Amino acid sequence: MTAKVISGKEVAAQIREELKGEVKNVKEQGITPGLAVLLVGDDPASHSYVRGKEKACNETGIFSSVTRLTSEVSERELLQRIENLNNDPTIHGILVQLPLPDHISETKVIETISPEKDVDGFHPVNIGRMMTGQKAFLPCTPHGIIKMIQSQGISLSGKHAVIVGRSNIVGKPVGQLLLNENATVTYCHSKTANMQEITTQGDILIVAVGRAGFIGKDYIKEDAVVIDVGVNRKEDGKLYGDVLFEEAAEKASYITPVPGGVGPMTITMLLYNTVESAKRTLEGASS
């Protein structure tokens, strides 16, 4: 048996089509959803991501503003620009592209963004709301992963989900979202002693470690749902996931590819959060 491939491109395209309708509806009520991106320095990957976000905004009807700053910009100036955007009624989402130069504190930057405009879902207030099951902007990649699984009609309730990786951006929050969906969650990481024993118990296996081909079929339970978050570029210039796709596909029931899996969902959920923020502004205006 070969696993069914969950195409992030297809799921993302479907969500973006729905978002177009929502944007049209919000615009008819006098608000254009607006996303402001601050890009510091000249990291090629960051510039590529931001171009992708601009393109996605244009296609969906979202107003997009990108401010490109040199790596010499002071922390003070960057924080002031964020404050200006916090107070700008035409902007519903603020995104500061990471990583930042060493002289700028990522923590300060994230905490300066208004929780009501934190469409990345990284602000401690939104993390706290997510942890306690309140209405919050959810981190984009973890939220996208949940949407991908649900797109296949897979119920998460009662399932054992094993997460390999504990980053603040993917590993930790995706575990919380799975918990919110009534899954039983186990984390594995670099200090886990008996990883294979644990991962082979997972009905759902989510791998986010940033090491090409880290997980082979011996780590996978028969008929598991395997979500590969890894994006690793090798010397041949190609992208590889954290999972050995071909052999994992022989054992899993569902699997995500790299590229074309989790990646397209991340920008899509950023658009989703921006539109959600604009809708909340409308609700606030009418109440």
Automatic annotation (TrEMBL):
It catalyses: (6R)-5,10-methenyltetrahydrofolate + H2O = (6R)-10-formyltetrahydrofolate + H(+); (6R)-5,10-methylene-5,6,7,8-tetrahydrofolate + NADP(+) = (6R)-5,10-methenyltetrahydrofolate + NADPH. Keywords: Amino-acid biosynthesis, Histidine biosynthesis, Hydrolase, Methionine biosynthesis, Multifunctional enzyme, NADP, One-carbon metabolism, Oxidoreductase, Purine biosynthesis. Its EC number is 1.5.1.5, 3.5.4.9. It comes from Thalassorhabdus alkalitolerans. The gene is folD. Catalyzes the oxidation of 5,10-methylenetetrahydrofolate to 5,10-methenyltetrahydrofolate and then the hydrolysis of 5,10-methenyltetrahydrofolate to 10-formyltetrahydrofolate. Belongs to the tetrahydrofolate dehydrogenase/cyclohydrolase family. Homodimer. GO terms for molecular function: methenyltetrahydrofolate cyclohydrolase activity; methylenetetrahydrofolate dehydrogenase (NADP+) activity. CDD domains: NAD_bind_m-THF_DH_Cyclohyd. It comes from the Bacteria. This is Bifunctional protein FolD. Pathway: One-carbon metabolism; tetrahydrofolate interconversion. NADP(+) binds at residues 165-167, 231. Pfam families: THF_DHG_CYH (PF00763), THF_DHG_CYH_C (PF02882). Residues 139-280 form the Tetrahydrofolate dehydrogenase/cyclohydrolase NAD(P)-binding domain. InterPro entries: Aminoacid_DH-like_N_sf, NAD(P)-bd_dom_sf, THF_DH/CycHdrlase, THF_DH/CycHdrlase_cat_dom, THF_DH/CycHdrlase_CS, THF_DH/CycHdrlase_NAD-bd_dom. Residues 6-120 form the Tetrahydrofolate dehydrogenase/cyclohydrolase catalytic domain. The keyword Hydrolase applies.
